[in-house]
Design brief:
Elements: E1 2-6, H1 11-22, E2 26-31, E3 45-48, H2 54-64, E4 68-71, H3 78-83, H4 85-104, E5 111-117, H5 142-161, E6 165-170, E7 173-174, H6 183-195, E8 202-205, E9 211-213, E10 215-216, H7 217-230, E11 236-239, E12 244-246, H8 247-255, E13 263-266, E14 278-279, H9 284-290, H10 298-312
Parallel strand pairs: 1-2, 1-4, 2-3, 4-5, 5-6, 6-11, 7-10, 8-13, 9-14
Antiparallel strand pairs: 9-12
Helix pairs in contact: 1-7, 2-4, 4-5, 6-8, 6-10
Bound molecules: guanosine-5'-diphosphate-alpha-D-mannose.
């Protein structure tokens, strides 16, 4: 299959493209103007595209003629969505409408994988954990509301026009190359800098009590590939580890990987206007439908991220 990955030069896009190529597919992709192309994508067909530009979206689809589309491109930061909700919706919702309309105008009916988020579930009580796909959505921030809207549009286009759309709710994932705006590389980057004597040994942190279902990006992209091949049209799938980790636990694991004595202090500026306390997914559906299961242990992921910052300054897109 020829698979178009929107946002191919992003953190997940690089891992996904390599996973799909290994599985025998041809990949092409889109990137934002000015976004760096990693060396391993130098020979790949990549179109510069701003998803908010309707006509440009149609042009890229006509030129690339994909058999499937994996829609990763997004404003992916919850924190940034509080600061700029309009831009978050412009890219994540209006951009998706342009993409769906462009695909609808094609003669073929390519399979589309829409990457949503566990944040769509929003505030849940401990009794509702683990979250199944049929659980209600109560998004608690502008990013989450946009991802829920994206999923509703996916359902609508699948039902109204018979388009081959699979929707995914991805739980938190990390790995080498993730931007340090996200919590694990944020901690790892600063621990590595402290080890090099580049900053004082005090780690300022936000809310350590929240519990999230974390996995390794390399497991997640393998799941996306399996969904593209074996997922069922019109269905929504959770993808994650099915395990809850508090941010405090993850931080302690990282701190146990360094010999430095590092003090941890709470920084009110790192707290969010509202943070969902617990999100853990039930991943039986994806396992039942595709056989996918996460494989990489959490300590391996954490060690790889820390090592990446120690050795390479964790440059995004390099991996
Ligand atoms: N970044 C950061 N820095 N987060 C911190 C810190 C800190 O110092 N201290 C605590 N946290 C908490 C945040 O408040 C949040 O609850 C949690 O760590 C995880 O934050 P992020 O890594 O920024 O990710 P996220 O959960 O907001 O969003 C990610 O996961 C979603 C899936 O659930 C993103 O990858 C989204 O795109 C994705 O949809």
């Amino acid at each position: 299959m020829k698979i178009l990955i929107t946002g191919i030069c992003g953190f997940v896009g690089g891992y996904l493209s390599r996973c799909l190529v290994r599985a025998g597919h041809v990949v092409c992709g889109t990137r934002l103007e000015g976004e760096r192309v990693p060396d391993f994508l130098r020979d790949t067909e990549i179109h510069v595209l701003d998803l908010t530009q309707k006509d440009a979206v149609g042009d890229v689809l006509r030129e690339s003629e994909p058999d499937a589309v994996c829609h990763l491109a997004a404003q992916s930061s919850v924190a940034l969505s509080w600061r700029d909700p309009a831009q978050t919706w412009e890219v994540n919702v209006i951009g998706l409408i342009h993409l769906l309309e462009g695909i609808r105008a094609m003669d073929s009916n390519p399979r589309i994988l829409l990457i949503g988020s566990s944040e769509e579930y929003g505030k849940v009580t401990p009794e509702e954990i683990p979250l199944r796909e049929d659980h209600s959505l109560r998004p608690g921030n502008p990013y989450a509301a946009g991802k829920a809207a994206q999923e509703m549009l996916g359902r609508l286009y699948a039902e109204a026009y018979g388009m081959d759309i699979i929707m995914v709710r991805a739980f938190n994932h990390t790995g080498p190359g993730q931007a340090p705006t996200f919590v694990i590389p944020d901690f790892a980057k600063r621990i590595a800098a402290m080890e090099k004597g580049q900053m004082p040994k005090e780690l300022l942190v936000g809310n350590l009590e929240v519990v999230r279902d974390f996995s390794d990006v390399r497991d997640i992209v393998r799941g996306y590939a399996m969904l593209l091949e074996q997922g069922r049209a019109g269905e929504v799938y959770n993808i994650g580890s099915g395990q809850g980790y508090s941010i405090r636990d993850l931080l302690q694991r990282l701190l146990a990987m360094t010999v430095e004595a590092i003090a941890v202090s709470r920084d009110p500026a790192r707290m969010r206007p509202s943070d969902v306390p617990v999100l853990i997914g039930d991943i039986r559906k994806i396992t039942d439908h595709t056989g996918w299961k996460p494989e990489i242990p959490m300590d391996t992921t954490l060690r790889d991220v820390l090592e990446d910052w120690r050795q390479n300054d964790g440059l995004p897109g390099r991996k």
